[in-house]
Amino acid sequence: MLRALPLVLSLTAVMLSACGGGTKMDVTQMTAAQPVEAALFSPLGQANEYRIGPGDKLDLRVFQVEDLSFKEIVVDASGEIQMPLIGTVRAAGRTPNELSTDIAGRLGTQYLRNPQVSVVVLEAASQKITIDGAVTKPGVYEMRGTTSLLQAVAMAEGPTRVADLSKVAVFRTVDGQRSVALFDLGAIRQGRADDPAVRGDDIIVVDTSRMSAFMRDVIAALPGLSVFRPY
User: Pairing relation of β-strands 117-123 and 57-62?
Assistant: First the structure.
């Protein structure tokens, strides 16, 4: 069902050159993009819990044990943190709940009775997204926790007056392959479609109204293209 999208890539290149101003993305990042199944873009409420990465800042607290609590602790480049008593702890790739459970288990084995540990991600430095096209401030933005498509566009100070909200493309690497899906941001705003969660390294491109007619023609020629919800 997956098909290459040379027409969409060519269109995206034209669209970005027509927007003028702001940061421009490297269209070669989208080489051989494939339409993906809509299920890969889960609604925000169904999104998987955030997984910690290198460079993330954490608020780590052990209840009533000040010496083991940190208002801010940074995950190092190898994905680990250093804790008193228990030493090196792997943080990258784990959810905050998984990390807190591991730390509590280690402390409870030798040092504390029924320790209560909480972990909160203060800054998700490992999760960045690129927002381009017809938005007020194109660029690379840092996500702080779970972020929806609507929230991501808001980070770029919203769409411009020439934006076509019915054609918002999200480029993503799925199983090592660059993939793409289209969403109707207008329908999301009106509550007629779910607001999908975006992920780190996603590239979001908002179409322009002056290109929308051509975009519809291209999409019509690609029945394999996945749209989150048709309108």
Answer: antiparallel
Non-local (6+) Cβ contacts of 91 within 8 A are 52, 56, 58, 75, 79, 80, 81, 99
User: Is the confidence at residue 8, as pLDDT, over 80?
Assistant: no
Q: pLDDT tens across 16-40, in order?
A: 344 444 444 433 333 233 444 444 4
- pLDDT surpasses 80 at 114: yes
pTM: 0.53
CA 56, chain centre distance (Å): 15
Asked whether 132 and 15 are in contact (CB, 8 A), the reply is no
Structure tokens at 86: 């228990």
Give residue 213's pLDDT.
54
> What DSSP assignment string belongs to 17-52?
HHH-SSPPP-GGGGTT-EE--GGGS-BGGGPPPP--
For the chain, strand residue ranges (E) read 34-35, 57-62, 70-74, 80-83, 87-90, 117-123, 128-133, 139-142, 147-148, 163-174, 177-183, 197-198, 203-208
